[in-house]
Amino acid sequence: MANVVVVGSQWGDEGKGKIVDWLSEQADVVVRFQGGHNAGHTLVVGGNTYKLSLLPSGVVRPGKLSVIGNGVVLDPQALLDELARLAAQGVVVGPERLRIAENTPLILPLHRELDALRENATVESARIGTTKRGIGPAYEDKVGRRAIRLVDLAEPATLPGKVERLLAHHNLIRRGLGVPEVDATTLVCELNAIAPKVLPFMDRVWDLLDRARREGKKILFEGAQGALLDIDHGTYPFVTSSNTVAGAASSGSGIGPGALDYVLGITKAYTTRVGGGPFPTELTDAVGKTLGEKGREFGVVTGRARRCGWFDAVLVRQTVRTCGIHGIALTKLDVLDGFTELKVCVGYKVDGKQIDYLPAESGAQARAEPIYETMEGWQDSTAGARSWADLPAEAVKYVRRVEELIGCPVAVLSTSPERDDTILVHNPFLA
Ligand code: GDP
Ligand code: IMO
Ligand code: MG
């Protein structure tokens, strides 16, 4: 029995939602610990498609407790909208099935506006390409010690003072940008209006998780984004504003690191990225286009086409280490069906020098040229395969080579968007 942390090992959209939904059959509690509604997780269950942004991907399974930890930034309106969308699909999630940490900072409309204003004011080549959900500005306010947190909605007497403090900062910026200032009384009224709708979900999550752990319940921690979008370890400044590495599961939920037994890194069989920033193996040719079309690589949140490229083993080898990944779930192998040959990046050339890691400096990252190894493709289909025996020999060879290059075994293999098209090699919960 073990608690499992799921993280993305690339730039997000590796298929975390599908794998967390699949694994959650064995879990009692599923916890989101960072990010916000910038995430987009697609679950396909018996032909029904669920698109989640803020809610943990265990939420569609009855009988599982979903938890949003303090490491998340919570847009209360986005939460209510997502709950309503799910209810319309027949999944009704009330406070008995969803608990939200009282110390979770809120995303307010002013954060969303600032995110968009900043992006639009930046020259295109320097844009981060954020989801414009207010994620960055909300985390800035958390670290700046002026955020409004969920628990503050339960203390109406002290709320105006907290809002004044927040607006002293924001209205200064808004004056500089030439946009109307936010009126304190109006914002307090808006917060008081939404409070009764979200406060029933509020809980002391650190305590809840500690009790669950002591009772021997299995806890599944669900990361959003990917390790290369981590604020410290990612391709800074083209990153998101939270720690996405596995260690964040501890601080982002209030459980000690000793309770995290197994880290599963979700890894796409090729590479994609949404938004700006360096991407050494990016393919802007017909091959890249084919990967995008076959893999249906369009963002869930913004609808943007994802940039596509060959599998980069250098990056994943690095995130295996920064996240302490014990095993990977290799997804979307089926998208590689039908290629005559496949390339895998095994190193970089930067300024004439060969290296086997991602350099930390953004200019050097942009100059990194991939060194490829070419492998034979396969013509038979792997789509929907549910056992190793169903895989063509070349596909098995590809998987084995990926394991060797990243220094980590495949624990789970995914061969289609559908929940059950998944091959279990090693059960993370039995680590
Ligand atoms: P996440 O953000 O990591 O949860 O990933 P997304 O849901 O944004 O993107 C992954 C996409 O790939 C979704 O549309 C999934 O339904 C789909 N998907 C997941 N696993 C597989 C797979 O093994 N094969 C194929 N073809 N699609 C998959
Ligand atoms: P999931 O959980 C892919 C990217 C954005 C942008 C950068 C910063 O579905 O894997 P932000 O709005 O977070 O300030 O944007 O991070 N990004 C993601 N890319 N998948 C995601 O989530 C992402 N969440 C943010 O495109 O480049
Ligand atoms: Mg996604």
Any key phrases for this structure?
EC 6.3.4.4, Adenylosuccinate Synthetase, Chain A, domain 1, binds 6-O-phosphoryl inosine monophosphate, Adenylosuccinate Synthetase, Chain A, domain 3, binds magnesium ion, GTP binding, Adenylosuccinate_synth_dom2, 10-stranded mixed beta sheet, adenylosuccinate synthase activity, 19% strand, Adenylosuccinate Synthetase, subunit A, domain 2, 12 helices, binds guanosine-5'-diphosphate, 431 residues, purine biosynthesis
Radius of gyration: 22 Å
| pLDDT averaged residue by residue | 97
Strand content: 15-25%
Tell me the structural class: alpha/beta
The CATH architecture of the largest domain would be Alpha-Beta Complex
Could you give me the name of the CATH homologous superfamily of the largest domain?
Adenylosuccinate Synthetase, subunit A, domain 3
How is the topology of this model organized?
Blueprint lengths: L3 E5 L7 H8 L5 E4 L8 E5 L2 E5 L12 E4 L7 H13 L9 E4 L7 H13 L13 H9 L15 H19 L6 H15 L3 E2 L1 H10 L4 E4 L25 H4 L10 E7 L2 E3 L12 H9 L12 E3 L1 E2 H10 L4 E5 L9 E10 L2 E3 L6 H6 L1 E8 L16 H14 L3 E5 L7 E3 L7
Parallel strand pairs: 1-8, 1-9, 2-5, 2-8, 5-6, 6-7, 9-13, 12-14, 13-17
Antiparallel strand pairs: 3-4, 10-11, 14-15, 14-16, 17-18
Helix pairs in contact: 3-4, 5-6
The site of 6-O-phosphoryl inosine monophosphate has 23 residues, from helix 4.
Describe this structure in words.
The protein has helices spanning 16-23, 76-88, 109-121, 135-143, 159-177, 184-198, 205-214, 248-251, 286-294, 313-322, 362-367, 393-406; strands spanning 4-8, 29-32, 41-45, 48-52, 65-68, 98-101, 202-203, 219-222, 262-268, 271-273, 307-309, 311-312, 327-331, 341-350, 353-355, 369-376, 410-414, 422-424. By secondary structure, the chain is α/β, with parallel strands linked by helices. The chain has three domains: 4-101 and 201-259, Adenylosuccinate Synthetase, subunit A, domain 1 (Adenylosuccinate Synthetase, Chain A, domain 1), CATH 3.40.440; 109-198, Adenylosuccinate Synthetase, subunit A, domain 2, CATH 1.10.300.10; 268-430, Adenylosuccinate Synthetase, Chain A, domain 3 (Alpha-Beta Complex). The strands form four sheets. It has a ten-stranded mixed β-sheet, with helices on both faces. Strands 12, 14, 15 and 16 form a four-stranded mixed β-sheet that branches. It has a two-stranded antiparallel ribbon with strand order 3-4. Strand 3 and strand 4 (48-52) form a beta hairpin. The longest helix has 19 residues, at 159-177. It is globular and about 65 Å long. Bound molecules: guanosine-5'-diphosphate, 6-O-phosphoryl inosine monophosphate and magnesium ion.
